[in-house]
Fold:
Amino acid sequence: MNSKKPVWIATVIACTMVSCLLLIPGCGQAEDIRGLQIEKLEVEIEADPENELLEMTSFLHMRIERSIEDCSFAFLQPSEITRVYDARSERELPYEINPYPGAGEGIYELSLDLSKCGEECIVALTYRYDGESFYAEGLNPTTNEGLVLGQITRDSIYSSHLFYYPYSGEARRASMRIVAPRGWIAVSSGELVTCEELQDGMTLYEYEIPFASGRLPYPLAIYPYEVTEALYDGRLPVSIYACQEDVPYSEEKMELVTGTILPFLEELMGEFPFEELRIVEVFPKTGMTGLATKSLVMLSQDTLFGEPIAGDYSVFPATVLVDEIAHQWNYYKVMFPNYLAEGISQYTSDLFTERYVDPDIMKERMATYREAYANVVGLLAALKSYKDNGETIEEVAERLGLSVEEVEAYWQYADYGEVPISDPNVYLSLYFLKGALAIDALRNELGDETFFAGFRSLFQEASEQEATLDHFEQCFESACGSSLGAFFQRWYYETGLPPQ
Structure:
């Protein structure tokens, strides 16, 4: 079998970012729970890395606005559920836990019977994870390589995407109480309000989180970190958490973030939208992790964190850092749909490279995106033909000189082929590529002054609210004073790439 990757694979890997907003298919929102408001989520965690265990208790403070019988949440299957009950009455609550339809292995749907609960109740769950159950892998849609979404080992614990508490994305605020061995540091979102040494050789970390998690669960990382801290512009605390050997990379990243990235992004999109920024190194068993959640960025040691930048802002660790921090505005301050958010973020990284690396690079990069897009569309068409002829994944992998895993990444999308990037069935790397191309085309049509005025206005009005493609279009129409309906129709609602 030919071991050399085809050109289209190499092009996509070289020119697109790690998926910082990867969602496990079929998960991320509980089923319809209108009429039920989760006022607060409380999660208590006792970490025992030596035995690869997490002892967990979650409290859901609920207000039921109308009579409902039950509700469901996405949930990572624990190794053991000890109890599910109403914390006020101590009444046991009936529940079911079943595989989440269409989701990956280990992801379940937790259904709670609330028929005996009053208008206000606190649903409590006690449960446990071990190293086998607290683990899941996803697929990076731009490299077709696996990435670990969370794990427990004797050396480190983290979750970037795991639903380690009953998750709906609807909790208005949260608190995280994490007990870890002395010398280990626990990191999550929000404000660290307690760091207290306990008598049994453990340390308590308590975070108050004044915002909903949004489209991903609250992150978690526990490790014997070294912390590098700075105050950006006299107002924004920035903290970088890394292993001792990677402290030089923390210091290098801090200089880049506070001296270049944040000034650039604030010029482009306005003031940083949260009270602080944390950048956290994690250590997956395999693959890489790049994640943006509200106020926090996670980067895997391999490839993304533990590599030098050395003043070269074109290297992968630098461009990914720009991409992830940019998502604090684009996806969290203003919650665009993923197909739009990733195109914006991709182009934001390209703008950074244009500014600080090569002012002439944009034309070359857009040409590369066009080639990569055409190659992926061609592959999907070829796979559809092979599938229709009854060939297996293994046979197609052999035919194309790819691994089975690489073919599997495209296999289900071959049935749809090329669709508009706003279509839920689009292959994910296509909206990275075409999304960036669309924004570059918009810039060329409007000119820099009007384009950048419209771009900045995207993030000035809405705050932590869902936003649509219509909002995106209207901001640019307001900037230029004319209709852009035909432009957006061609780029977002039709297939193919309009000519340059």
Q: What stands out?
A: The first helix runs from residue 7 to 15. The longest strand covers residues 36-48. The chain has twelve helices and 22 strands.
